[in-house]
């Protein structure tokens, strides 16, 4: 009869440690999701190398395209949201905004790298504006919680806009102020110029599509037409 209470205590302690660590349980050892035979896998016909993304190499969009980057919690769902926005042509999940070279998921989870889980986006400005992407960003996460989105806690889950130009910075700051007025709450979103970007491990890329676990079937914040 004494075994059960001890077991409950151990499970509770384990859960608390997982939440404090900010790492999703078991994610570091996840296998490559099956895409060819998975009944629920629905990969979209979008690219996965925005700006020719690599391991800390300079980003360069294709002719006529532009780049954007956002952090809004777990990058699986954030990437899935933006891949459904018309005009987005390529996305990748990545680590940026930190101070270490060659970050990995494990090192980012340690809270010692300063990097955020981010999504890099290549888009066609003739089809979707940067302001629309900003609006999707604001409406699909909570920008009022510091270093937290739901159960995910840690600086890697912070709300951030990483800008590629002075124009993007100006638009982002203006949009942040409008969001503050609309919500009536302090917006903790960080707005900062993009620094080196490190593409995340392969199994993280387009993870929601590969596993069929789409968290945001219809992105909020898109313009509606009569």
Description:
The protein has 226 residues and is an alpha+beta fold. It has a domain at 46-53 and 63-211: 2-Layer Sandwich (Peptide Methionine Sulfoxide Reductase, Chain A). The chain is built from six helices and eight strands, in the order H-E-H-E-H-E-H-E-E-E-H-E-E-H. The chain has a six-stranded mixed sheet with strand order 7-6-1-3-2-8, covered by helices on one side. Strand 6 (159-163), helix 5 and strand 7 form a beta-alpha-beta unit. The radius of gyration is 18 Å and the shape is globular.
What are the SSEs and their pairings?
Layout: H1 3-21, E1 66-72, H2 75-82, E2 88-96, H3 105-109, E3 116-123, H4 130-139, E4 148-149, E5 152-153, E6 159-163, H5 166-183, E7 190-193, E8 197-199, H6 207-211
Parallel strand pairs: 6-7
Antiparallel strand pairs: 1-3, 1-6, 2-3, 2-8, 4-5
Helix pairs in contact: 4-5
Number of strands: 8
Q: Any guess at the CATH architecture of the domain at 46-53 and 63-211? A: 2-Layer Sandwich
Instruction: Give the helix tally.
Output: 6
Biggest pleated-sheet summary: 6 strands, mixed
Structural class: alpha+beta
Mean pLDDT: 84
| Proportion in β-strands | 15-25%
Q: State the helicity in percent bands.
A: 25-40%
In whole angstroms, the N-to-C terminal distance is 65 Å
Q: Give me the side-by-side strand order of the main sheet.
A: 7-6-1-3-2-8
CATH class of the domain at 46-53 and 63-211: Alpha Beta
CATH superfamily of the domain at 46-53 and 63-211: Peptide methionine sulphoxide reductase MsrA
Low-confidence stretches: 1-22, 25-32, 34-40
Integer-rounded radius of gyration: 18 Å
CATH topology of the domain at 46-53 and 63-211: Peptide Methionine Sulfoxide Reductase, Chain A
Which quaternary structure do these chains form? single chain
Order of helices and strands: HEHEHEHEEEHEEH
Shape, please? globular
């Amino acid at each position: 009869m004494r075994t059960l209470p001890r077991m409950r205590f151990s499970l509770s302690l384990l859960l608390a440690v997982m939440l404090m660590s900010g790492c999703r349980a078991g994610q570091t050892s996840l296998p490559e999701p099956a895409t060819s035979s998975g009944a629920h896998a629905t990969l979209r016909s979008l690219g996965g190398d925005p700006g020719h993304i690599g391991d800390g190499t300079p980003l360069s969009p294709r002719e006529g395209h532009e780049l954007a980057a956002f952090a809004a919690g777990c990058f699986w769902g954030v990437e899935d949201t933006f891949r459904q926005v018309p005009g987005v042509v390529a996305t990748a999940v990545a680590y940026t905004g930190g101070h270490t070279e060659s970050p990995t998921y494990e090192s980012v989870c340690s809270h010692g790298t300063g990097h955020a889980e981010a999504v890099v986006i290549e888009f066609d400005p003739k089809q979707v504006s940067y302001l629309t992407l900003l609006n999707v960003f604001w409406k699909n996460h909570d920008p009022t919680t510091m270093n937290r989105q739901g159960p995910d806690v840690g600086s890697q889950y912070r709300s951030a806009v990483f800008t590629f130009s002075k124009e993007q910075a100006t638009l982002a700051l203006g949009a942040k102020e409008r969001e503050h007025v609309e919500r009536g709450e302090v917006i903790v979103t960080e707005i900062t110029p993009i620094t080196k970007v490190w593409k995340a491990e392969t199994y993280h890329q387009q993870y929601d599509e590969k596993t069929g676990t789409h968290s945001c079937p219809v992105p909020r914040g898109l313009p509606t037409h009569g």
